[in-house]
Amino acid sequence: MKHVTLTLRELIPIGCILVLVVIAWTLDSLLTPMIKSTDLNIMATIVAKDMDPTLYPRDNLFASNELYRLYTPLYRWIVAQVWRLSGSFEIGLALLVPPVLGAFLVGMFMLFWRVIRHNWVALGLTVACAYYHKLMMGAEVWGVGGSAEMMSRTLFMPVFPFIILIFLNMLEKPNWRQGALTGLALGLAANLHPVSGFHLLVLLLMWFLLIHGHRLKNWPILPAMGLAALVGAWPVVWNFLINSGQPVSSAVTFDSFSQIVAERYPIYFFPQSFSWSWLGLKLTRPLLDILAWLYPVLILGGGAIYIWQRHHRPGLAKWVWLVGGIITLTYAYMMALFNTSLIFGIVGVYLIYRLWHDPLSRLEDWLLIFMGVVVFYSFVGYYWLTLIWRQFEVWSLTSLLVEYARAARFVYLPVYLLAGLALTAWIKKLQGTFPALKTIHFSWVSNSLAVFLLALILFGPLAPLVADYLPLPARNLLDPMSWQVQPVSRPVDTELYAWVQQNTNRNVLFYGCFGPETMTYFRRQTQRSITHNWKDLSFLVHHRATLVTAYQRYRELEAACKTFNGTISAAHAIDADYILSSSQDAAAFASQACFVNEKYAVFALNPKGCVSNR
Fold it and tell me: How far apart are CA 205 and CA 196, in angstroms?
């Protein structure tokens, strides 16, 4: 590819716009610090335990660190440092937004610009793809966003575009040194989120093999890349190895174990349906089974026809190739749960456009191949792996399987890059038709106007009008109300947390009759132990010797919550100190409560521990 560099004149407005985007997300994180994610609140509890090992001495999960001590240690260390620096978990996550989002934006702009060579298209797609796409197969995400999304998988994203840049260089000029460098960078990044690192390594190896595997001299690159990745990721590899070989009690059957795993991770195990909200349609089984088997048949059959006819009948081969691209794009759209329709639509129209005009370039071919690799690996492979796991009762596949669908997130890479190539091609077509557009495009006036308009949209009076239509947290900073910092929890919750912290000691145990969201927040905010929580079972999936008994205990405690007397009996049986119940459900017994507000009621099993808030 021809070497071209951006001038300072071009970089200044681009840099200003990226800075505005970072400022917008950072301000939003500081002004609305509430963390609603139960995953992040679980992580906050883990980090709090790391910082003070005496916390949660009687908790169901956090009494010791045995179940999570090797879980993303680098991410936990980073969060602990910013927590100590800021004095608050929420503000600490907000401090991560500028470096994490900034690095991601710079990396993605470099990647887009390298591929499409158009400043403003690259910049627009960079800003768009930074948005946190929450809905994908496997409950996976794409992008960065603000502090409310600052999970370990989010911290992997700033490294991702730089890994792809190195890998693209290797695709153009294959050599084992570039392969080793790619693998090492990927392995080191895996310490932030091991699942993303593992999946990306497999996808890149498959991608390289399909493009350059026909030459034996390129095969040494594969082990070089894999071994380098293993070296970089070794601190987290050990966790998977020791868990995969854990013994299973003979009293635990695979049938009971698999049913619990599938219940705890309903979206991770080949989803029962994909919803299409626009038309109210659902793809359900057995249609999903047919789709999982149909894709490899179509792609392998089409690939055979393409290889056979590309020299004899190139016109037919071109049709077969692009029809295969449309089929692959359709599967990718389904994996994105039919979200981000615009970006998929642009790519679909572009493929049809190229079918009638020019043949696809080598890079476009490569991107279609990678999209097919992601679809095959994360959709078809996931389906087959699930069948093997269930049919042959392969216990050791459980840890891999519950995280397998997360690979679907990487389908956005070829989709965004192909969309960039599409927009660039159409803009050049317009510039050829209207030469004046080219002059305006490169003028200082248009650059300055773009920066000014974005600043006005993000921080001016226009913000309320466009906030629902931009992938950015726009707010009118000229309005004093916009500067008010929102509380980290709702008032009704804050009242409970304050009472618990002031009137109970840290060694008490709470029996909670609420769902996982409420109990996760309660444990984190009060720093008190709880008896059970649905979210805690996710850690036990990787420790299958204890999952079934823990699940049975959880169901028994939940069943006891159906009546107040049953709750009292169960709480006494497990030596709990307090019961946390709904004030509406316990209205008949409100006079016995130590604490009551419009949502919660707290009862002490030992009357001496009751300090009323009334």
Answer: 14
* pLDDT at 21 > cutoff 60: yes
Residues 6 or more apart in contact with residue 412 via CB below 8 angstroms: 129, 133, 142, 336, 340
> Same domain, yes or no, for 566 and 602?
yes
Instruction: State how many domains the chain has.
Output: 3
> Is residue 375 exposed (0-12), middle (13-18) or buried (19+ Cβ within 10 Å)?
buried
Q: Give the span between the Cα atoms of 83 and 64, in whole angstroms.
A: 21
Query: What pLDDT shows up at residue 497?
Result: 96
Residues constituting the chain: 614
Mean pLDDT to the nearest integer, 260-285: 72
**Which residue among 412, 442, 472 closes a domain?**
442
Would you give the DSSP letter of residue 509?
E
The boundaries of the domain holding residue 225 are 131-246
Band the pLDDT of 460: cuts 50, 70, 90: confident
Q: Which of 121, 219, 163, 168 is nearest to 366 (CA)?
A: 168
453 vs 502, more confident = 502
Packing angle, helices 341-356 and 412-433, rounded to 10: 60
Q: Are 104 and 158 in contact (CB under 8 A)?
A: yes
Q: Name the token pair of 214.
A: 């026909």
Per-residue pLDDT tens digits for 505-561: 999 999 999 999 999 999 999 999 999 999 999 888 777 778 888 999 999 999 999
**CA–CA dist 316, 80 (Å, integer):** 59
Instruction: Determine the Cα angle at 298 with ends 297 and 303, to 5°.
Output: 100
| Alpha-helix runs per DSSP H in 52-175 | 73-86, 89-116, 119-129, 152-156, 160-172
What pLDDT does residue 437 have?
Answer: 56
The Cα–Cα gap between 153 and 323 comes to 34
| Residue-averaged pLDDT of the chain | 86
Residue 604: how many CB atoms within 10 A of its CB? Answer: 20
Give the distance from CA 198 to its chain's centroid: 14
Which of 442, 473, 501 finishes a domain? 442
Same-domain pairing of 242 and 252: no
